């Protein structure tokens, strides 16, 4: 079994700890966090030691490092882990500063580092099946992509204040999905955004509602609808249009039961929490990391992380300028 050091004992770190512990080829070896109490709680739950970061990176027998700490620590931890020869799985985004992320990517390349970036939606079975149909040329040439990503409700304002903003924190998942589905580089970004849901988000210097258009050099487009509040559940839909029609992946209901009567159809509401909607994706993501530890190439690496961050930066510039901005 491959021994894994986990850095970060917050919500997403807890998810990864459970996935590691459940995987037959992996063993959680230790947990580190800047908050010792958080590390201690998660470590005790899994029966492993809570250690500091330096100890986690240098512990004998460690084969892989999972980084689920706050975004500003990602670059330094990736580089430190790579210098020790570890295979690295790092949560998104790579960083909040594009220049710093690009410089880190060059250093990781120089070291020959093996890095997986945590864009978990590529591992969702529904979206992966959609992508497989595109790869099989089911639509012919892809002409347009439409992505809807609306959260059920805004996150706590303390989270918003340190998140890096809507585009880098939330929409960055959709930027990565757009690149994956279109399979061509985007050259321009036009974004409009506003604070329509929670005035506290605006007071923190952020927005909560956005519409973004990404364009390729040959004029193909992806539109992204983003909102911190849907009012009806965790709305995650993708539609891809091509020369032979449409392929779509819809929302996932809590159950598949439907009740039909003279008044029409009643069905279960859609899921309301990202950890429920993407539970399979997180498990498949860790399974891919296990494959990487045995030689597989990463499906999403640090260059993908930089490319998504570049789209987020262009979206912020466009929101400020009111113009289409180059990537």
From TrEMBL:
One annotated GO molecular function: nucleotide binding
Please list which residues make up the signal peptide.
none
**Gfo/Idh/MocA-like oxidoreductase N-terminal domain mapped to chain residues:** 3-119
Q: Which InterPro entries match?
A: Gfo/Idh/MocA-like_OxRdtase_N, GFO_IDH_MocA-like_dom, Myo_inos_IolG, NAD(P)-bd_dom_sf
Q: Which Pfam families match?
A: GFO_IDH_MocA (PF01408), GFO_IDH_MocA_C3 (PF22725)
Record keyword tRNA processing present:
no
Q: Where is the GFO/IDH/MocA-like oxidoreductase domain?
A: 127-247
* Entry annotated with the keyword Oxidoreductase: yes
Gene3D superfamilies named among the record's database cross-references: Dihydrodipicolinate Reductase, domain 2, NAD(P)-binding Rossmann-like Domain
The domain of life for this entry's organism is Bacteria
What are the protein's UniProt keywords? Oxidoreductase
For this chain, the family text in UniProt reads:
Belongs to the Gfo/Idh/MocA family.
NCBIfam families reported for this sequence: myo_inos_iolG (TIGR04380)
Q: Which protein are we looking at?
A: Myo-inositol 2-dehydrogenase
Native species of this protein? Answer: Sphingomonas parapaucimobilis NBRC 15100
Name of encoding gene: idh
């Amino acid at each position: 079994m491959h021994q894994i050091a986990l850095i970060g004992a917050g919500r997403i770190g807890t998810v990864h700890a459970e996935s590691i512990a459940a995987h037959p080829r992996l063993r959680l070896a230790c947990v580190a966090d800047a908050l010792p109490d958080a590390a201690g709680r998660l470590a005790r739950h899994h029966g492993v030691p809570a250690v500091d970061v330096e100890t986690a990176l240098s512990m004998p027998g460690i084969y892989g490092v999972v980084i689920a700490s706050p975004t500003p620590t990602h670059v330094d931890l990736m580089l430190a882990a790579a210098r020790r020869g570890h295979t690295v799985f790092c949560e998104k985004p790579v960083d909040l500063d594009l220049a710093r992320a690009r410089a880190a990517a060059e250093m990781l390349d120089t070291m020959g580092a093996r890095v997986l970036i945590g864009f978990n939606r590529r591992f969702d079975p529904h979206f992966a099946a959609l992508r497989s149909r595109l790869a099989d040329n089911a639509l012919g040439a892809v002409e347009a992509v439409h992505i809807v990503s609306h959260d059920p409700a805004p996150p706590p304002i303390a989270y918003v204040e340190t998140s890096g903003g809507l585009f880098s924190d939330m929409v960055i998942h959709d930027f990565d999905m757009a690149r994956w589905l279109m399979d061509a580089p985007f050259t321009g970004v036009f974004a409009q955004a506003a604070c329509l849901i929670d005035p506290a988000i605006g007071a923190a210097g952020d927005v909560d509602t956005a519409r973004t258009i990404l364009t390729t050099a040959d004029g193909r487009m992806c539109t992204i609808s983003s909102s911190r509040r849907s009012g009806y559940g965790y709305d995650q839909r993708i539609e891809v249009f091509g020369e032979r029609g449409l392929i779509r992946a819809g929302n996932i209901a809590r159950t598949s039961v439907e009740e039909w009567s003279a008044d029409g159809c009643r069905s279960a509401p859609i899921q309301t929490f990202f950890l429920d909607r993407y539970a399979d994706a997180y498990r498949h993501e860790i399974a891919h990391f296990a494959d990487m530890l045995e030689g597989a190439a990463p499906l999403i690496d640090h260059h993908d992380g930089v490319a998504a961050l570049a789209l987020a930066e262009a979206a912020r510039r466009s929101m400020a300028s009111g113009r289409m901005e180059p990537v």
